[in-house]
Amino acid sequence: xxxxxxxxxxxxxxxxxxxxxxxxxxxxxxxxxxxxxxxxxxxxxxxxxxxxxxxxxxxxxxxxxxxxxxxxxxxxxxxxxxxxxxxxxxxxxxxxxxxxxxxxxxxxxxxxxxxxxxxxxxxxxxxxxxxxxxxxxxxxxxxxxxxxxxxxxxxxxxxxxxxxxxxxxxxxxxxxxxxxxxxxxxxxxxxxxxxxxxxxxxxxxxxxxxxxxxxxxxxxxxxxxxxxxxxxxxxxxxxxxxxxxxxxxxxxxxxxxxxxxxxxxxxxxxxxxxxxxxxxxxxxxxxxxxxxxxxxxxxxxxxxxxxxxxxxxxxxxxxxxxxxxxxxxxxxxxxxxxxxxxxxxxxxxxxxxxxxxxxxxxxxxxxxxxxxxxxxxxxxxxxxxxxxxxxxxxxxxxxxxxxxxxxxxxxxxxxxxxxxxxxxxxxxxxxxxxxxxxxxxxxxxxxxxxxxxxxxxxxxxxxxxxxxxxxxxxxxxxx
Length: 479
Fold this sequence. Notes:
The protein is mostly beta strands.
């Protein structure tokens, strides 16, 4: 599902509706929806997934509104208004299932847009006075861009690690009463990196890659730098390692974690200029965590810059779409940069060396220790898979389903499943008993062949409870 603004091809401000498109990846059918019942123009919002798989879309053009999308019913409902109006902010789902957000001064002059948290059980947004935005600001020459698009990683004990785009990194820490303070985590670099990419490709070990971005949001030359980080204890500084440079500097690019742990970086410009295709980068780069190097892959067909998106599909391919959304009132930098279309990227792991299609592993049946149908699992629980055909050297990857806007996807993360018990062609996989690693919500389970080719994924919901805790799933809609 993808969306634009109050019109399919342009935005204009607080019209109380949003245009959505649904793409059926099995049939190829595309359909259109005009969402009016929540009175929310969801242009430039924050997006995060709740523990039950619902998606919370907060702020944007209608800057204090909240909309909740339920993929199980395919319906949108209005949520409570935020305490602070925001646009261009980031949000992230905490290990306790609440949603934290910070910043977002795009919709007006720079203000003190400190943190707040959404509790879906109480259905309320609450201000967090100690979660101040000031330490996370960039030095952008445009004041209302300094608190945009934070690089958030939810972590243990309801903590959040902020890796960028500011050169200063921070921890947002707290206790059972909520995030109460911000603590410096050192500097990542000597310059800011607005609209760069960030991804936790191995949450089991707290491993992160960040790359590219610009000192200023617009009309700025991006860097080629890439960094590898490892986080562990909340509040402790991460280890930071400079990686080899990208082949191209990029602004407005997107990053997608793939089932094998590699990270695909697509699109962007070598000079950031909103609503143009000038200096577009067509050639993706793939980060290999084993060698900590990048390689270039097959070129894209269409420029994917400002307002583009990219996201992992359950068949292991990548959906790349959008870019532009230029207003037809003459105020955009250049007309003709709108791309209301999509393309599908098939990574190299789907092919044999001779170019023929690789043979995928296939899951016949899945169950968990709490659900015979395998739809739900607890942190610390287990999943049992029966395969269509057993093959040597199989690996297993758990991928949190992503959401994406403005190069920001705080939902995606990968957990390699390595505690495995095998009987015949049946595999039992133990899950980490840590909701800071295994953030509750919907996840894709992939089986990966010895050659690196993933299966088509099965979707599993990680419940908001540990192995010895009572699960909070009383709502009949969740079965």
